[in-house]
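Sequence design from tokenized structure. All designs in this work follow the same two-part layout: the structure record, then the generated sequence. An example of the structure record is given first.
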């Protein structure tokens, strides 16, 4: 395994850990607290809606898996080193941008779906922090997968 693949997998592992933390948030959100002693839930007030915790949990893990899969496929697709380097930052950036988006959506009244108000609520700093990188990396990820598809269909 080369350095590019190792770095991609390392970032994916960190993104996966953040997804796991969102899973803890999901559990607390579902229960309304933490069960320290069986049958006794200690109330814990947590920001965000349960559905947002689901998105942060599952989305984070799926982004991490995506990065790992692509990292492992680079040799199979015979991706040149220069393209592998580009795909690395494109996909790792997408994973972190999406992770930031999921967490910003938890604290943003409008779910970080727009910069201004929408049917869910008002915009604000959290919406901007979550949405701006996500919008940029939507385009970047599309380009990355066009490159991957082109490489997959090219003759060896």
């Amino acid at each position: 395994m080369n350095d590019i693949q190792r770095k991609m997998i390392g970032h994916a592992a960190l993104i996966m850990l953040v997804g796991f933390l969102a899973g803890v948030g999901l559990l607390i959100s579902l229960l309304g607290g933490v069960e320290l002693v069986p049958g006794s839930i200690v109330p814990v007030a947590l920001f965000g809606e349960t559905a947002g915790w689901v998105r942060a949990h599952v989305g984070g893990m799926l982004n991490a898996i995506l990065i790992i899969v692509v990292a492992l496929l680079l040799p199979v697709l015979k991706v040149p080193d220069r393209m592998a380097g580009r795909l690395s930052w494109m996909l790792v950036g997408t994973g972190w941008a999406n992770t930031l988006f999921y967490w910003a959506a938890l604290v943003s009244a409008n779910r970080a779906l727009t910069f201004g108000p929408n049917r869910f609520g008002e915009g604000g700093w959290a919406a901007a922090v979550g949405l701006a990188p996500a919008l940029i990396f939507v385009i970047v990820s599309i380009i990355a997968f066009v490159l991957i598809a082109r490489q997959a269909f090219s003759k060896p």
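The longest strand covers residues 33-37. We note this feature because it recurs in several other targets discussed in the main text.
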